[in-house]
Amino acid sequence: MNSRTLLVYFSLTDKTRETAEFISIDIECDIERIKLQTDPGDDIFRIKTQIREGTESLFLIEPPTCDLQQYGTVIIGMPVWENDVPPPIKSFLLQKDWRGVTMHPFFSSGGIHKDVLRNLQRLCPGARLASHLFLIFDLNGNYLGAEE
Ligand SMILES: Cc1cc2nc3c(=O)[nH]c(=O)nc-3n(C[C@H](O)[C@H](O)[C@H](O)COP(=O)(O)O)c2cc1C
Predict the structure, then answer these.
(1) Strands 143-147 and 133-137
(2) Average pLDDT over residues 5-21
(3) How far does residue 48's CA lie from ligand 1's centre (Å)?
(4) pLDDT tens-digit map of 101-143
(5) What separation in Å is there between the alpha carbon of 1 and the centre of ligand 1?
(6) Which of 35, 50, 93, 139 could form a disulfide with 55 if both were Cys (CB 3.0 to 4.6 A apart)?
(7) How far is CA 28 from each of CA 5, 23, 25, 75, rounded to the nearest angstrom?
(8) Which among 109, 112, 113 is the best mutation to test ligand 1's pocket, defined by most ligand atoms within 8 Å of the CB?
(9) pTM, whole model, 2 decimals?
(10) 5-38+47-147 to CATH, choices 3.30.420.40, 3.60.20.10, 3.10.450.50, 3.40.50.360
């Protein structure tokens, strides 16, 4: 089995990015940041409306460069959007074959995330979801704590 680790993440307001950078200090891994083709802006209510209306085309991502065949373990980080996996990560997951991959997800959120793990598993059939971590931030971006 492949022993290499990939750390892949999407971050809009940098909380997930900061966590990804901390993780990468301690773990030897390759890193891929999922990037949107178009800046969604910072109007959270507009982004929420676009998600609810299913305007997925507004969340098109730059083509990912990683080759999953090279990795046995994937650490994947994302903000929770609408109690769900954010559309850019959904796009990424749906482009890949997850069979045989062990996945360690981490999420940044304001604490409302009860459906996200189940939804994540549906998007990567064949992956084994191992340990996960929820990092909780308040509305000002202050770190409040972690939940396993
Ligand atoms: C469009 C949108 C939807 C969000 N939905 C949720 C949610 O359902 N539950 C929650 O706890 N936080 C929600 N948040 C807050 C983010 O999950 C939180 O601010 C996260 O730390 C941002 O991570 P980032 O800085 O890496 O983008 C939402 C934020 C945005 C922009």
Answers:
(1) antiparallel
(2) 97
(3) 10
(4) 999 999 999 999 999 999 999 999 999 999 999 999 999 999 9
(5) 35
(6) 50
(7) 7, 9, 8, 11
(8) 109
(9) 0.96
(10) 3.40.50.360
